[in-house]
Specification:
This protein has 6 helices and no strands. It is mainly α and 194 residues long. The protein has 2 domains: 32 residues; 154 residues, no CATH class. α4 runs antiparallel to α5. The protein is globular, with a radius of gyration of 20 Å. The structure holds protoporphyrin IX containing FE. Protoporphyrin IX containing FE binds next to α2, α4, α5 and α6.
């Protein structure tokens, strides 16, 4: 059980267990052809990256930001330095967002290939629109402004404060949108609202 002491090995073990389940399904099941395997793997990777992204979004909004209220500039500089929790969390957050979008667009392409425009229900259109707005917020507002806040990009104290406010508002917008986004993303394939 030593592998549980190393997070990379733990993740690898999770992938190996998944591969075993897929192999068992290929041998014993009757539904697993190659195209289904690619489609299901894409959906699974999409949801995995979505969990990383939205999990960290909720961590920032519900845990980190509320506890950094009265922290001094010196302590913040320490908390935001290279290799810190904040930098690691932002790294996984950004890549989570990128891969969620990438796998989401591959899924959308799959829908289009199989059913054309008619395959896009109102549910998935709402989910995708909100998801894409959220990704754009991460890429074009949150990350550029966070880089100033954490000192990766040179900025004065006033610029840092303004950048922090912009990033916070975009992050709060994403928290708000994530709630209906997730509902319609899931209902698009289970029960359909519209
Ligand atoms: C970033 C933009 C996003 C796009 C373009 C997108 C696109 C899609 C598409 C096309 C599907 C497949 C629907 C189907 O096969 O019928 C899907 C499914 C799904 N997405 Fe997204 N998505 C995005 C963001 C997210 C986020 C942030 C999450 C959060 C976890 C998420 C969670 C899910 C889930 C759980 C499903 C599976 C629905 C099911 O089959 O039960 N998506 N997404």
């Amino acid at each position: 059980m030593d592998f549980l002491l190393d997070h990379k090995k733990t993740i690898i073990a999770g992938f190996i267990l998944t591969a075993i389940i897929l192999a068992a399904a290929a041998v014993t099941g009757d539904g697993l052809d190659a195209s289904l395997l690619i489609g299901e793997s894409t959906r699974w990777l999409h949801v995995m990256s979505g969990i990383i992204w939205i999990g960290l979004l909720y961590y920032f909004n519900f845990v980190q930001v509320p506890s950094l209220g009265g922290v001094t500039a010196e302590t913040k500089a320490d908390l935001f330095k290279e290799g810190s929790i904040v930098r690691r969390a932002l790294h996984w957050f950004r890549f989570g967002a990128m891969f969620t979008l990438l796998f989401g667009l591959i899924l959308a392409w799959g829908l289009y290939k199989n059913g054309g425009g008619a395959a896009f229900s109102v549910d998935i259109m709402i989910g995708m629109t909100f998801g894409i707005i959220m990704w754009a917020n991460v890429t074009f507002i949150i990350w550029p402004n966070q880089q100033k806040v954490i000192g990766m990009v040179e900025a004065t104290a006033e610029e840092k404060a303004a950048a922090g406010k912009k990033a916070l508002l975009a992050s709060r917008t994403n928290t708000l949108l994530s709630i209906p986004m997730l509902l319609t993303m899931v209902t698009s394939a289970h029960g359909s609202l519209f």
